[in-house]
UniProtKB/TrEMBL annotation:
Sequence ranges of Basic and acidic residues compositional bias: 293-311
Positions of the UniProt region annotated as Disordered: 289-325
Domain Mos1 transposase HTH, first and last residues per copy: 10-57, 255-288
Name of the protein in its database record: SETMAR
Length: 325
């Protein structure tokens, strides 16, 4: 038996009948397909009509608007972005002959976001870029052959504020101002956290007292504490450096400091100054082990007037006006 080709309005009335019959959009589409074959509505059209009925609009003679057919190809968009990723959406739309909204939708579907360029100290030349590439390849090859990352200990310092207010969300009516939260006081009470870590994790940390800063003696003490922490937490490091020199950021500085401490303990005021020890160790590192020649250094400033020199020895921060009085 031949079936007449249905009109779209008749098919939509059938969808309304199926909706009132508590059928789903898939079941309604299956019914139309079994009866009318290729002349039925598509599955997406059935979904849109059922969504229209569920919203309370039961008028079957006004076609609901659907998503337009997307003609923009992702490959073309990617090719343009590979050429120049700073192009605006309007420029991309003109080249692809589509709307700016279509470009925006495709960019969002690809997971792309617009990011501001990052400042760098200076622009590298081609030679510098090649040198960086060669260095990185060499380090990577060395790492693949014999990993060295676990032997690197990194340090950093960070201010820890005692007061850290957090903003909280609150419920309110439209037009009503939310609760106020004062900004953190960056000049308030705070302490400095000194942290050392390697590839496995944190090795040693130290929280300084409020107002305390890291000076030479404090940093030297931290280096010795770090050595003890490495001996305790990193057995491989302890075995490799067993009986070795004291751990410090600079071998010359650490050795010169220890030598000055030893001389000070034995000879007291007759020991060499710390700066003299540094100059001698620097002389030894250069390969000159001659003890008769004093290493060249900046001589201490002395005044011909012993009274002014005595005043400066008491307080070297005095101004010229105060010394003149």
């Amino acid at each position: 038996m031949a079936i007449s080709e249905p009109k779209s309005a008749n098919l939509r009335e059938v969808l309304l009948f199926a909706f009132n019959w508590k059928k789903s959009a898939i079941e309604a589409h299956r019914m139309l397909e079994e009866v009318y074959g290729d002349h039925d509505l598509s599955k997406s059209q059935c979904y849109r009509w059922f969504k229209k009925f569920q919203s309370g609009d039961f008028e079957p003679y006004i076609e609901p608007r659907g998503k337009p057919h997307q003609k923009l190809e992702d490959a073309e968009l990617r090719a343009l972005l590979d050429e120049d990723s700073t192009q605006a959406q309007e420029k991309l739309a003109k080249q692809l002959q589509v709307s700016q909204g279509a470009v925006s939708l495709r960019l969002n579907s690809l997971g792309m976001t617009q990011k501001l360029s990052r400042w760098v100290p200076h622009e590298l030349s081609e030679r510098q870029q090649e040198r960086c590439l060669v260095t990185c390849e060499g380090l990577l090859a060395r790492h693949e052959k014999n990993s060295f990352l676990h032997r690197i200990v990194t340090s950093d310092e960070k201010w820890i504020h005692f007061s850290n207010p957090m903003r909280q969300k609150s419920w309110g009516l439209p037009g009503q101002f939310p609760k106020q939260t004062p900004r953190p006081n960056r000049f308030g009470k705070k302490a400095m956290l000194c942290l050392w870590w390697d590839q496995p994790g944190v090795v040693y940390f130290e929280l300084l007292k409020p107002g305390e800063m890291v000076n030479t003696s404090r940093y030297e003490q931290q280096m010795h504490s770090l050595r003890e922490a490495l001996n305790e937490k990193r057995p491989k490091w302890r075995e490799k450096h067993k009986g070795g020199p004291s751990f410090c950021c600079s071998p010359s500085t650490g050795s010169a400091t220890e030598a000055h401490r030893m001389l000070e303990e034995v000879y007291s005021d007759h020991a060499l100054s710390k700066s003299q020890c540094y100059r001698w160790f620097k002389k030894f590192q250069s390969g000159d082990f001659e003890l008769d020649n004093e290493p060249h250094g900046k001589p201490p400033q002395k005044f011909e007037d012993p009274k002014k020199q005595a005043l400066l020895d008491e307080d070297s921060t005095q101004t010229q006006e105060k010394l003149a009085k």
